[in-house]
Amino acid sequence: MENVIILSIAIGLVVSLFFSEKLGVAAGGMVVPGYCALNLDHPLNIAATLLAAYLTYFVVFSISQATIVYGRRRTVLMILVGFSIGWLMRSLAGAYLQPSASVDVTVIGYIIPGLIAIWIDRQGATETFASLVTASVVVRLILILVTGGEMAL
């Protein structure tokens, strides 16, 4: 399992670099497509992560209307708010979804929503979401080809 995660992140780094250099769009951060590719078989997790990222962007944007938040502070604030919203969504999902329910919804990673929110802020939601989904699918396809479909997660 650990080898698949490492391989996915490595492939995600290469794909993210390609998207950034050749297409001019960022896929939500360098490591994000690798993690999302591992969760493509759980679309609710992807949706929860994208929702957490958009909420993170909205919260930080709202804060920036009342105070000056630029540069490193904005980046750190995005990561902290993304972490907090992800934690809150995990807690709410655990509290309101029955453990015996067949639906398991969680936010991917701890800093992934913040990383995606940073790129929503820089290049817009449509470009970020579209490039992230596309890059994640490319990473997943390459993973399937490399592992022969034997991705035991």
Largest sheet, in brief, is: none
What integer value in Å does the Rg equal? Answer: 16 Å
Low-pLDDT segments: none
Number of strands: 0
**Count of DSSP-assigned helices:** 6
Order of helices and strands, N to C?
A: HHHHHH
Question: Would you tell me the overall average pLDDT?
Answer: 90
Structural class: mainly alpha
General description of the model:
With 153 residues, the chain is an all-alpha fold. The protein has one domain (2-147). The protein is built from six helices and no strands. The chain has helices at residues 2-23, 32-38, 43-66, 71-96, 112-123, 125-147. Helix 1 (2-23) packs across helix 2 (32-38), helix 2 (32-38) crosses helix 6 and helix 5 crosses helix 6 (125-147). The chain starts with a helix and ends in a 6-residue tail after the last helix.
Short description:
This protein has about 150 residues and is an all-alpha fold.
Present the secondary structure layout:
Elements (H helix, E strand, L loop, with lengths): L1 H22 L8 H7 L4 H24 L4 H26 L15 H12 L1 H23 L6
Helix pairs in contact: 1-2, 1-6, 2-6, 3-4, 3-5, 4-5, 5-6
